[in-house]
Amino acid sequence: MSEIRLAVELSCRRHGLKLREWHDERALKQDYDTVQTGAQRQSPVLPDGYFVISPDSRTSFHFFVEYDRGSEPLRFFRRKIRLYWLYFQSPKPTLRYGTNRIRVLTVTESKAPIRARGRTKSVRDATKDLGAHNWFWFTNINEIISNDFLSAPIWSQTQIDEVKPLLDRFS
Question: How would you classify the pairing of strands 155-157 and 160-164?
Answer without folding.
Answer: antiparallel
